[in-house]
Design a protein that fits this description.
This protein is α/β, with parallel strands linked by helices. About 30% of the residues lie in helices and about 25% in strands. The chain has 2 helices and 4 strands. It has a 4-stranded parallel sheet with strand order 3-2-1-4, with helices on one face. Strand 1 (about 5-10), helix 1 and strand 2 form a beta-alpha-beta unit. The longest helix has 12 residues, at about 15-25.
Protein backbone atom coordinates (compact mmCIF):
# COMPACT_ATOMS: atom_id res chain seq x y z
CA UNK A 1 0.00 0.00 0.00
CA UNK A 2 1.28 3.45 -0.93
CA UNK A 3 1.95 5.78 2.01
CA UNK A 4 -0.22 8.87 2.41
CA UNK A 5 1.84 12.08 2.41
CA UNK A 6 0.75 14.49 5.14
CA UNK A 7 1.33 18.11 6.11
CA UNK A 8 0.31 19.38 9.55
CA UNK A 9 -0.49 23.07 9.97
CA UNK A 10 -0.46 24.66 13.39
CA UNK A 11 2.44 22.45 14.40
CA UNK A 12 3.27 24.36 17.59
CA UNK A 13 -0.11 23.80 19.20
CA UNK A 14 -1.04 20.92 21.48
CA UNK A 15 -3.10 19.09 18.86
CA UNK A 16 -0.60 19.76 16.08
CA UNK A 17 2.20 18.22 18.13
CA UNK A 18 0.04 15.19 18.93
CA UNK A 19 -0.79 14.61 15.25
CA UNK A 20 2.90 14.90 14.33
CA UNK A 21 3.81 12.40 17.04
CA UNK A 22 1.11 10.00 15.82
CA UNK A 23 2.21 10.17 12.18
CA UNK A 24 5.79 9.34 13.15
CA UNK A 25 4.67 5.98 14.55
CA UNK A 26 2.06 5.19 11.86
CA UNK A 27 3.15 2.89 9.04
CA UNK A 28 0.66 4.17 6.43
CA UNK A 29 1.63 7.85 6.65
CA UNK A 30 4.67 9.95 5.80
CA UNK A 31 5.01 13.41 7.29
CA UNK A 32 6.19 15.66 4.45
CA UNK A 33 5.96 19.10 6.04
CA UNK A 34 4.83 21.01 9.11
CA UNK A 35 3.77 24.64 8.96
CA UNK A 36 3.07 27.61 11.17
CA UNK A 37 1.84 31.14 10.39
CA UNK A 38 5.09 32.69 11.59
CA UNK A 39 8.81 31.97 11.25
CA UNK A 40 10.02 29.34 13.73
CA UNK A 41 13.73 28.63 14.15
CA UNK A 42 13.56 25.32 15.99
CA UNK A 43 12.91 21.79 14.80
CA UNK A 44 9.88 19.83 15.95
CA UNK A 45 10.27 16.05 15.83
CA UNK A 46 13.17 16.54 13.41
CA UNK A 47 11.38 18.83 10.95
CA UNK A 48 11.77 22.60 10.61
CA UNK A 49 8.39 24.39 10.40
CA UNK A 50 7.72 26.29 7.20
CA UNK A 51 5.37 29.15 6.47
CA UNK A 52 2.02 28.24 4.92
CA UNK A 53 2.82 28.28 1.19
CA UNK A 54 2.49 26.33 -2.03
CA UNK A 55 6.03 25.05 -1.52
CA UNK A 56 5.13 23.56 1.88
CA UNK A 57 2.14 21.68 0.42
CA UNK A 58 3.70 20.76 -2.94
CA UNK A 59 3.97 16.95 -2.65
CA UNK A 60 1.25 16.40 -0.06
CA UNK A 61 -1.89 14.26 -0.32
CA UNK A 62 -3.55 15.52 2.88
CA UNK A 63 -3.33 18.76 4.88
CA UNK A 64 -4.33 18.44 8.53
CA UNK A 65 -5.21 21.89 9.80
CA UNK A 66 -5.10 22.83 13.50
CA UNK A 67 -4.86 26.61 13.17
CA UNK A 68 -7.06 29.62 13.82
CA UNK A 69 -9.87 30.50 11.35
CA UNK A 70 -7.86 33.27 9.62
CA UNK A 71 -5.04 30.83 8.82
CA UNK A 72 -7.49 28.15 7.73
CA UNK A 73 -8.85 30.48 5.03
CA UNK A 74 -5.28 31.19 3.82
CA UNK A 75 -4.53 27.47 3.67
CA UNK A 76 -7.73 26.78 1.73
CA UNK A 77 -6.70 29.33 -0.91
CA UNK A 78 -3.30 27.66 -1.26
CA UNK A 79 -4.68 24.12 -1.30
Amino acid sequence: MKKIKISVTGCLGRMGKQIIKSTKSAKNFTLISITENRVVNKKIFGLKPQLNSEFAFKNVNVIIDFTVPKCTLEILKIA
